[in-house]
Amino acid sequence: MKIKHFFLASLILVFTSCEQYNSSIRDFTDGESESLNSIGIFTVSSYKQVTFSPGNLQYHPKNNIWRFAKNQYDHLSGVYNGGWIDLFGWGTGDNPTNKSTYDFDYAYGVDWGINKIENDLPDTWRTLTSDEWLYLRSYRINAEQLIGIAEVNGVNGLILLPDNWCCPDSITFKAGFDKEWSTLYSQYQTFTKEQWWKLEKAGAVFLPAAGYSHSIVVEAVQMYGNYWSATATRYSGSAMQFDFGSAGAGVSSCNRTYGRSVRLVKDL
Fold this sequence. Notes:
The protein has about 270 residues and is mainly beta. It has three helices and 16 strands. It has a four-stranded mixed beta sheet with strand order 9-6-7-10.
């Protein structure tokens, strides 16, 4: 059960040409700046910047293997059947099962990044806090212009643009959200796989609307995206998440046993 919710609406802005925002905190050499622009720099607090992992986190419980989805728009949206899963109960960051508990061990937060993921060492990646998700969504410079819903390669989701955003040639990006809650993200804007490759090369991040799981039921696929934070609430059975739909995005609290998506970041 959600205890509180902070969905925020956005102004609609359209990008049809290159626009650069000088919101970077760090000073980079020309070579380093060019390299980081291709993966996207995202400010998540007044003193911290990150880059996002290449896809949603996936886990194989039987083989105890963690990996990232091959593409940013990929999602499994299924319950555990002996194969890979990508909807996690809060607490599975350091307890690799597909469901969380109300154990006090998880009272202060979890971080899926403590695990070895593919060829990366443990603690290479980390989970954003709820404050960082909210800062990214609403308080970084030009925040309202750097977010928007879309259908990408047939998948509904949310696009986050980097601080150092420069719109690719031949691409039109419309920031913001629809007026109605629906599964028709395509009515707002649509990008083909080829168009998405251009956006991705420019540093854009896509969070698929993979829904959530409750017990053996998966719900709201292609309608809502629900992404765990590393932040617990003062209630032992809930934790904070970043969630979105076609009409808005924000942070909220949620039952820890519900399966949510996980998207990790790396500090710069």
